[in-house]
Design goal:
single chain, about 260 residues, alpha/beta, Rossmann fold, 2 domains, seven-stranded parallel beta sheet, 8 helices, about 50% helix, globular, 3-hydroxybutyrate dehydrogenase activity, Sc_DH/Rdtase_CS
Length: about 260
């Protein structure tokens, strides 16, 4: 069903760990060439890059652009276009988190979360769109969150950024609706990523609970299924949105959150 993905090119921010890494693996398995981005150990990143390329016979490159620096973000998109001759798929996945009461929220953490979780997507989209318009094809997928639809205490910056992503998604979709380009958001619930593991520890400290209590009484309590969302759950939606089959979906969101926002 997704054979048309083969030979496409994708740039995925924050793809050296967690959901972004799973997206890179998933799209590579469908024959998509990948531009990786993110922080981490250089040796581990190179091992992942080389392994991905060899396993799926696709071209895989890595760009270490800092998502707080607009010039580096432009360089990421420019290199993707130069390497592959196109920027077919843009996945804005990079994100960080801080859990804290708002009256104690560090100013620098607020600024960093807004910069990485929201503003970086403006810059990637701004520079990717000319390439997509020229080709008459483009797929933009923004990783929002269930927190782009509802709020939780102690996550003011994250919730604000993810709500902003929802608005950005709709606006971009309207602007490019006649250009063969779609822009959508995926809103995951809790996935057992390194980011969430850190969030569990921070929440335990903020609420005076054990980490196990946080998992049961805070994290999975929000999801009626009482199960973490899996990478496979998210990749299925991603493949659809990036393929011809998903061409009719734009300016909308797909909530993969175990029933969280149905309440």
């Amino acid at each position: 069903m997704f054979d048309d993905l083969k030979g496409r090119s994708a740039v995925i921010t924050g793809s050296t760990s967690g959901i972004g890494k799973a997206f890179a693996e998933g799209l590579a398995s469908q024959g998509v060439n990948i531009m990786l981005n993110g922080f981490g150990d250089a040796g581990e990143i190179e091992e992942f890059r080389a392994g991905l390329s060899e396993a799926h016979n696709v071209d895989v490159f890595y760009n270490a652009a800092d998502m707080t620096k607009p010039d580096e973000i432009k360089g990421l998109i420019d290199e993707t276009a130069e390497r592959f001759g196109a920027v077919d798929i843009l996945i804005n996945n990079a994100g960080i988190q801080k859990v804290s009461p708002i009256d104690e929220f560090p100013d620098d953490k607020w600024d960093a979360i807004i910069a990485i979780n929201l503003t970086s997507s403006f810059h990637t989209i701004k520079h990717a769109l000319p390439h997509m318009k020229k080709a008459g094809f483009g797929r933009i997928v923004n990783l929002a969150s269930a927190h782009g639809l509802v709020a939780s205490p102690f996550k003011s910056a994250y919730v604000a950024a993810k709500h902003g992503i929802m608005g950005l998604t709709k606006t971009v979709a309207l602007e490019v609706a006649e250009n063969g380009i779609t822009c959508n958001a995926i809103c995951p619930g809790y996935v057992a990523t390194p980011l969430v593991e850190g969030q569990i520890a921070d929440t335990a400290k903020a609420r005076g609970m054990t980490e196990e209590q946080v998992k049961k009484e805070v994290i999975l309590a929000a999801q009626p299924t009482k199960e973490f969302i899996t990478y496979e759950n998210l990749c299925g939606i991603l493949f659809y949105l990036c393929s011809k089959a998903g061409s009719g979906a734009t300016g909308t969101h797909f909530a993969i959150e175990g029933g969280w926002t149905a309440k």
